[in-house]
Please model this.
Amino acid sequence: MSADRRLATVLFTDMVGSTQRAAHVGDQRWRELLERFHETVRRELRRFGGEERGTAGDGFLATFDSPHRAILCAWSVREAVRGLGVEVRTGIHVGEVETMGRDVGGIAVHTGARVGAAARGGEILVSSTVREAEAGSGFVFEDRGPHELKGIPGEWRLYAVSGAPLDAADVPSRTAASPAPSGRLPQLTRGRLVSGVAAFCLLFGIAGLYVIVRDRGQTFAPGEAVAEAAAPGIAVLPFAVRGEGLDVWREGMVDVLSTNLDGAGGFRAIDSRTVLARWDEGVGGAARPDLAASLDVARRTGARYAVIGSALATGPEVRFAAEIYDVQSGTNLGEAQAVGLPDSVLSLVNDLSIQILRALPSSPGADTPWRAAASQSTASVPALKAYLEGEALYRRADFDGAAEGYRRALESDSTFALAAYRLGDAYGWMESIESDLAHEFLTRAGRNLERLPEREALLVRGVLILDAGSLEALPLFEDAVRRYPDDAEAWFLLGDTYVHLGPQALVDWREESDRALSRAVELDPGFAPYYLHLIENAVVNADTAGARSVFATMTGLVTTASNEIRTYGMGLSLALGDSAEQSRAIAGVDSVDEQSVSIVQRMTVHPRLYPRLARSVEAWRARPDATPLASGWMVLADLIRGRVAGAADRLLDPLLDAEGRAYTAYRLHQTGLQTGSPAVEEALAAPPAGDPFAAFYAGAYAAEQGRWPDHAKAVARIRTHARQAAAAGDTSDASFTEGAARALEGFGFLKKGDRESALQILQAAQRQATGYGAPRRVNEIIRWWLGELLLEMERPREAEPYFTSLVFEVEPDPLAAQRLGRIHEGLGDPATAREAYELFVTAWQDADPELQPTVEEARAAIARLAGSGR
Model:
């Protein structure tokens, strides 16, 4: 057989300290560990398209068709084997190799081996050839300096891989596993990878963050969601437990078995939160209800089948048993049982899952591989138990306690992706959608997506995209609720996305979020946090009775001392209370943290509530620990009430940062009264280097004045920031700033009279330049430009969504309501026009004298339309 020469990436990896470990654990345990180590490494090689070329004890030699796949594989292997309690060192090199059958040789192979030998425990070391080939890929390389590699001529500079892109666990192998034949139980193995994960690929780059979502060929509507769930549902009911240390499995088995059974053999598991909610409603505290009551619970979840089980301590062993029932007929379809030591619980759960599936009748279209998802997520029983304890607290909205459970789970297994996901979620509740800790742990979960069950992997992807402020989160969560219509969390995340990104997506976020959040509450009425946005929405919609009713329901679910009760109670008192309640709420501003105060302010962003907003903001700004956020709310309170003179004076507030100052100056310019004032000119004349937001507003102001060199300089400055963000691996910042630069270019076309080019560029940029905080403000300005441009082009129907999105934004623009009044009056819709004019007049009723003529015009329009019915 002749040798074949080709370019390949060579990977060497071996276990650190294997000799000492073998001596310490003994022959039998060492053989078992080595077998699991080999299985884990080979699994990752298959997934990333690696070809195993040789094995020596605990070492592997493999080749890949690209260095990118090799690094991804090395990263995943390192994280996976840590679950076994071992570390590996890895070396990677690219070069020409000689292949003869499975054997591989050549200088490139020797070089790769020497690179691996130079690596420390837990380190992925690559040659400069690999590093250069992967420039701009999202990996982070740390220079380890020059090395002499034994037997290899010359000096070699080596680099350690210290960071990976978010999709580091997301590249499928070149040959996908074939699905099991329809009607047959798939091969069941502990290491089975989550199929379907590759259907969603995150593509990061300066052009933006995109998600490929399977198109179901129809427009999403929540009413259609349940009809799509054709797969028969399985409800795993809480287990009866008896014996010390088994309490965690009462609800824990609902989570673990549901995760294992979901998608197996064409069945779907009813979401555990939905099951537990129906259980609490149907049987309450009954530890072991009769069969009829149990089946009734399962029936009300929408399940076709029910699993009723028990956990019993029998001496040193634990026994799990389950009976499987047809919910409609009450027929017992079979039994399952698994007995073993407590430290083998994961294997017992997998055995129980297999037996349950065998008892179920074959399902049409049973082509989805079964996953032993519990053991995919963790191989550590202590980690799983801590995680389940966290889950129980999470359901009661005890986020501090839940976070502690998830942290202990991660301490036991640092690669436990479900625990990382939940911990990030808990920090999101405790802090905000922009929480750094939430982002840290969600990103950590994202790096281990292959360890997540398919449903959780989909939700983690969506949360990561939502965290980045990308509009692509909406279609992903819409797809999630179609695929999993009984998943309360998926519905909540869809509603949450509408709340945070709906205005930027140009949808009626209040109606859509109410619909999704109400569905989440319907599925799991005992989960308190689902009610929070519903309270905010009711206040914004001026539904006093609804807001108080929802708040009362939530109060019954959590302790009265909780931060949520205190914060939202304060917000309701300020927004809906009498003068005494308002005064108490304003006085309470001194006793809560900044995040809570900010929530209170958002609950008063409605034209009729603006005076109350102003009073509370003044109390906040007077605090000795006031921050730029408080100063920003002061400016906003003036702007939305038409107090432009006061807002202009606040440009001198020392707490106001450069971005806030530039944004305020540009908003003042929009009123037409402050253009050319010294304060506005100073704020927009020379933005500080490195601040793309201030540069955006300065560039827009320059374009309006025809100062094209300054406009071009602002565009270039923003693009420089985009390139720097991309180089640093911050893809969301790079995407946003590139979108902002494009929008500023589009605005230049508008001011030069090229409306068609401006419209095309601005519409694309508005979908890209999205986010929270300062990015959201930029998006608001772009939407204003688009609305005004479409009015100039005499396309009022197309302009309407842009102005509508600005009326009830976090930082609303009452002038948008005035524009809407004109639009609807011109379109022959007097009732809607009058409503918009009334909103505008309510907001600006106490505006500065210079703005009162505009207010009087709106009042005249209201009078003119008074005879029209609503």
In short: Residues 589 and 620 are 6 Å apart (CA to CA). Confidence is low (pLDDT under 50) at residues 166-229, 363-376. Residues 27-47 form the longest helix (21 residues). The chain has 38 helices and 16 strands.
